[in-house]
Amino acid sequence: MNINTVNSNGLSKCLVVVITLCSLNGHAQNSNEDSAIEEVVVYSIRKSLESALAEKRDKVNLTEIINADDIGKLPDENVAEVLENIPGVQITRDAGIGDGVSIRGSDQNRVEMNGRGTTPSGDSRGGISFSDLPAALVKSLHVVKVPSADMVEGSLGGTINVKTYRGLSLKKPLKVISLKSEYAQNAEDWNRNFSFTVGDKFSTGIGEIGAILTVSHIDKSIRQDSIRVSPSVRKVVDKYINSTYLLPDGNNDPDPYYYPGYSEISSNNEERENTALSGSLEWRAAPGLKFFVEGSYSDFSKRGRGQMAITQPADISDRCTNLNTDRETDSINPVVLDGIPVMPQATFDVINVEGLDIGIMTSGMMGGGIRNCRADVAADYDSKPTNDGVQIKTKNVSGTRDTKSHVFALGGEWLGDNVEVKFELSGASSKTSSPSFQTIFQYNNPEHLRFLTGNGKIRMPMFYDTRGDYLQYGPLEDAVGRSSSFVAGTTTFFTFDQSALLDPKNYALFLAKDLEGFFDNDLYAQKIDAKWDFDHKFLSGLSVGVRTSQRSNSKQRSSAQTSQYPGITALQLEEAFPGFMVETEGDLFSNAGGGLYLDEFVTASSEVIFNQREAVREFLSLEADLDPLQSFEVEEDTAAAYIKADFFVDVFDIPVRGNVGVRVITTDQVASGKKSLTTAEMTSSLDAQGFDYTDLLEEYSQSGSVSSQTVADLTAAGFSSETIESFFNNGLSSIDESQSYTNILPSASLVISPIEKMQIRLGYAEILRRPNFSQLSPTAVYPLDNSPVNVGNPSLKPTTAQQYDLTFEYYFRKGSVFSLGYFYKDLDSVIGKVSTPRGICNVNASSSGEATSCSVGGIDGGLVTAVTPTNLPGGTIEGFEIALQHSFIGLPQPFDGLGIIANYAYQKGERGLTFSTPGYLADEGLEPDFPLNFVGLSENSYNLTVYYDKPRFPLSGRLRYTYRDEFLQTEVSTVTAGLPLYTAARGQLNASMSYKINKTFSLNFSGVNLTKEPVIHRAIFSTGPIGRMRDPDRRFSLGIRGRF
Predict the structure, then answer these.
(1) Which of 526, 522, 547, 527 is CA-nearest to residue 773?
(2) pTM
(3) Is it the case that residue 553 has pLDDT exceeding 50?
(4) 727 burial class (0-12, 13-18, 19+ CB within 10 angstroms)?
């Protein structure tokens, strides 16, 4: 919080200084301001900013606008990165590339193209993925923060409208081409970026025709290094080792603390390719009558070829059943042998959460080999029978996605004397395939008799360090791997130096998984709008319209996996498929300062696997079939009508304008899929009604059906037809759940102009956001292990809210503005996640005993945690936004080309929700209340852009720094075993320059992520232990742009 205060105060001081300069600058030019504005011919950065600001000023609804000339000069790759310039907008990045957008504390936004809905790549809701939408397609971006009745519902934060070029709006032929080469520092590769736009307007015998086409192609390699260390808890009375740690509170009783558990250390390399185009054809058949057809298409592909090492505490040894020191923090006290320190003493920190002190281990050795699990034998680091250390697995990271998206529309506009009618038919679609083929190997001792099983593991001590808010986890330089074999009363010891991690002969296959998801999204809409203009002293216009839509989202998933330890070695796979095993580069986080990491090992090659996927499947005896339990479809039809009145009136000679309206929407949803009942559930439900499940199955097996009398008896007992179907289909039955609801959404906006340069905006709206399709699914997503199962909830209700806005704007000269705004949102409810331990049976999971055993269709499995979306209590989000934009054209040369864009947003969320008390605290008799904020809400955020741009001067450029506070990433995360995960505060610096060679060509240079700050995720609490750290790429680009 201290950091946040410093940043906020520092920004406030900067704004005061800048506003003072602006005032002085404006005062010096009061006498000739108007004439000066007329004489200066502006272009490039300044021109685009001025035109966008003028358009925003004319809007009744609070709307932020960025124009295309501005986008073309920024080092932004996609729409998400462009939006970062807007007050109250915060973005998230994937591998350093803009990926998600949060507006006023909410990432539940609607993405449109030319006012039309778009479809996502998966089973979310908002629209096209930002990574699929390159900035080259965009003429302008409109972010509507206060909606009006004529806008389509579906956003809690704001509506992002991506506007493309149209031919009839051109004043002269347009021909623009851009070539760019980008160097990615982590990937050590040059990437390619190409785009062109051509357009013209023609006069013909049948009227004017305008046509325009934009094509963009991006081909790039990226790399993001990542490390995850999930926190474990050493309890006072622990299953394995009791805590001896003492909080610095003067109490001599031991206290629990967090220490490192399961970890993933990876270098994630990806190849991304995106080809996109957008075009339109318009025909003005007569004055006031126009027809159009337009569309866009995107073909996005991502090929993952990452490599990962997994470490976790070793299983309990056969020779060590009374004490599992493998899960012990071995260096809670320093270890000294013969007077020589063998391992440093562990270090700890204390955080205070809601008045409770919590201990966190910040450094220490894990599994250092200082105990031997036997009370009658002294500890001996060199000859310990059960060799301490973590076990190591490696796997290829093969996240891949292929998405083809399109949006099309045809329609027309008719303009009469005082009426305008618009009509159109539109559609959007996206098809996605996301295959993932993973092979997981265990680092084993090839001389061990049980090399092909888990007992042959080689165990390595690891040193953990998070001091300085930088996560490191790896073997010390002289650390060795150890293995021991106990045969016929004799223990044989084996030692391996770290180079053995690079030898494929030391790896046995643990598991292979072949997964693939298929997503199909379709959206069709029909609408007609009419607007009447009135020459009235109060009512200036009246708009009405209707819109219907038909939307569907379907998902299918295929999966197959080998058994655990199927008896296959890495050398066998290498022999069958040359190049199958590949070494890592061994330079993890080297571009972020380096450190101590386990980064030299071998994994399978994702490239080899996907190039020979069918052959690898055959070798591993994998047959991937579509799983009906993990497939679903949601169909959604809507019908909406609205009425909106525009007004303009002088109140005591003060101009007042605005609109007021209401939108009524009816929604019909049907969610379809398959569900399964466990054998125990079916048996108990039948027993309760006097039926014997064994007898029913016997009757069914004899003839392939049951008698009509049996069906009638079951129906009379209250069983539905779907449940009866499941009794004789291995517990599997169809499920169709439907719901309908109607919402009435009023809205109003008011603009008061007390003086010419000042505007006061007031806004009100009721807003609506429907659940994501994955949340509405009636099915579950079953992982191939004991991980939590995500279960859908087709009964989810939409989130509704009321929002209020008040904004002050002062346009103190052309292209300059200072604004201060306040907003308040009252959310009736939100959709969150709830975890239920042992809440669902997964036949892919293993059981740890009778309490977790279960079966489905006669197949044994394990009860695992179920994670279900649910309607949770709502809350409020409020905040204020400060923005300043100004060009210092009154300063002495050469400083008259300077300009500034600065904005700051403060957002505060209050929510009636807490998360479950971590188990170890409950064991200690403590039940503190830990509140949860809204997902994606940062309390403080700002960006500051300084630019230089002068008429007739060939060089222009800008420097932009953005910052946002920590925020809740998710309420439930696998990193935290079902508890919250936070993203820490982070800033980023970008820069760009342009040099105009002549009237046609200009050179462009840009740098992205210049400060290269790591992305840090904290576990459980916003100040908790570091659960994950990532190193996004730093990118530099050089390009040429021609406008003919």
Answers:
(1) 522
(2) 0.85
(3) yes
(4) buried
Residue 1016's H or E segment, with its range, is strand 1015-1019
Tokens of 778: 């009636």
Of the candidate ranges 13-17, 198-202, 451-455, 855-859, the one whose mean pLDDT is the lowest:
13-17
In whole angstroms, give the CA distance from residue 943 to residue 962: 4
| Residue length of the chain | 1044
pLDDT digits (tens, 9 = 90+) for 19-74: 443 444 444 443 333 322 222 233 467 888 888 899 999 999 999 998 876 444 44
CA distance 1001 to 333: 67
> Considering all CA atoms of the chain, what is the largest pairwise distance in Å, rounded to the nearest integer?
104
Residues 6+ apart with CB under 8 A from 225: 186, 266, 267, 268, 588, 589, 592, 1030, 1031
Tell me how far apart the alpha carbons of residues 62 and 82 are, in angstroms, rounded to a whole number: 19
Distance CA(810)–CA(760), nearest Å, equals 9
How far is CA 467 from each of CA 349, 357, 584, 595, rounded to the nearest angstrom? Answer: 9, 19, 26, 12
| Cα 196 to Cα 79, 169, 183, distances in angstroms | 17, 18, 21
Instruction: Kindly tell me the burial class for residue 421, based on how many C-beta atoms sit within 10 Å of its own C-beta (0-12, 13-18, 19 or more).
Output: middle
**668-724 per-position pLDDT tens digit:** 999 998 877 777 777 888 888 888 888 887 877 777 777 888 888 888 888 888 777
Residue 738 burial (C-beta neighbours within 10 Å; 0-12, 13-18, 19+): exposed
Whole-angstrom distance, CA of residue 240 vs CA of residue 930: 28
Q: In which residue are the tokens 């003493």 written? A: 345
* Pairing, β 116-117 against β 654-676: unpaired
Q: Is the bond preceding 951 in cis, omega lying within 30 degrees of 0? A: no
**pLDDT range class, residue 105, cuts 50, 70, 90:** confident
Q: In Å, what is the CA distance from 123 to each residue of 325, 525, 676, 772?
A: 44, 19, 22, 7
Q: What is the pLDDT of residues 779-822, one digit of tens each?
A: 888 776 778 888 889 999 999 999 999 999 999 998 899 999 99
Backbone angles phi, psi at 955, to 5 degrees: -100, 130
CA distance 921 to 944: 43
Q: Does residue 113 carry a pLDDT above 80?
A: yes
Higher pLDDT, 878 or 1044: 878
- 786: helix, coil or strand? coil
Q: How confident is the model at residue 139 (pLDDT cuts 50, 70, 90)?
A: confident
Q: Where are the alpha helices (DSSP H) in 862-936?
A: 919-923
Sequence-ordered list of residues with C-beta below 8 angstroms from that of 522, at least 6 positions apart, any chain: 119, 427, 428, 429, 550, 551, 552
Per DSSP bridges, beta strands 898-911 and 914-915 are unpaired
Place of tokens 């190591």: 392
Rama region for 827: left / alpha / beta (φ>0; ψ in -120 to 50; rest) = beta
Domains and CATH numbers, the chain: 2-163+534-556+631-671+739-1043 (2.40.170), 679-730 (no CATH)
pLDDT at 11: 38
Is 743:153 a contact under the CB 8 Å cutoff? yes
Closest alpha carbon to 428 in 196, 203, 119: 119
The residues pairing with 642 across neighbouring beta strands, listed in sequence order, are: 545, 663
Tell me the pLDDT of the chain averaged across its residues.
Answer: 85
Beta strands 207-234 and 654-676, pairing class: unpaired
> For 494-505, what is the mean pLDDT?
94
Q: What token pair was written down for 319? A: 């020779």
Distance CA 968, CA 388 (A): 36
Q: How far is CA 805 from CA 102, 232, 879, in A?
A: 18, 45, 10
263: closest CA among 581, 563, 596?
596
